[in-house]
Amino acid sequence: MPTIRQITSINAPVPVCFDLARNVDIHTQTTAKTQEKAIGGVTSGLLEIGDTVTWEAVHFGVKQRLTAQIVEMDAPHSFTDVMVKGAFKSFTHIHEFREHKNGTLMKDTFSYKAPLGLIGTLANKLFLKRYMHTFIKMRANELKKIAEQKKHSYLMR
Predict the structure, then answer these.
(1) What's the CATH class of domain 3-152?
(2) What is the pLDDT of residues 4-47, one digit of tens each?
(3) I need a labelling partner for 64 at 20 to 30 A (CA). Which of 17, 27, 28, 89 fits?
């Protein structure tokens, strides 16, 4: 099972980073390049344990839908989502947040199984793993920008 790990240092408090990462509206903003939008389940606000969200996005020029569910949460340190339905055979995405120097270390661990058996295995080696790593890194960098702008007072409790 391929696994992608991305660690991002963010100059913002752990609770802010945690809430930004599980905010459906922010997710849409950070994935604008793939035209991602929530079309089912929780479609706005903060995701909680047990919640599902169905995303529609364009990847490889094809409109796709994927439903994920939050299966674990240890606020504000981690949450895990898994694919319930979608293009992958399966995936698990663990989001972790730890205090670090001037803010937060955000760690994404994305483990997945490509669909289509041997064809999927070949696609993974040729382009899928690189594509997914770039996608996760891009989203992490966008979250970092938002968190560091300190324009997130609407998330503070």
Answers:
(1) alpha beta
(2) 999 999 999 999 999 999 999 999 999 999 999 999 999 999 99
(3) 17
CA–CA distance, 81 with 69 (Å, rounded to integer): 5
Q: How far apart are CA 155 and CA 7, in angstroms?
A: 23
Q: If you count DSSP H runs as helices and E runs as strands, how many of each does the chain have, helices first?
A: 4, 7
d(CA 104, CA 107): 9
Contact 6, 108 (CB under 8 A): yes
SS3 content of the chain, % helix, strand, coil (to 5): 35, 40, 25
Give residue 148's region: left, alpha or beta (phi > 0; psi -120 to 50): alpha
What residue spans define the domains of the chain?
Answer: 3-152
Which residues in 75-117 belong to E strands, given as ranges?
A: 78-85, 90-100, 103-113
The pLDDT, as a whole number, for residue 152 is 53
Query: How many Å apart are CA 8 and CA 126, to the nearest integer?
Result: 26
Q: Nearest 10 degrees: CA dihedral of 33, 144, 48, 85? A: 30
Please name the residue ranges forming H helices in 41-104.
none
Place of tokens 């694919």: 83
Q: Helix H segments across the chain?
A: 14-21, 24-30, 117-123, 129-148
**For residue 76, cis peptide bond before it (omega within 30 degrees of 0):** yes
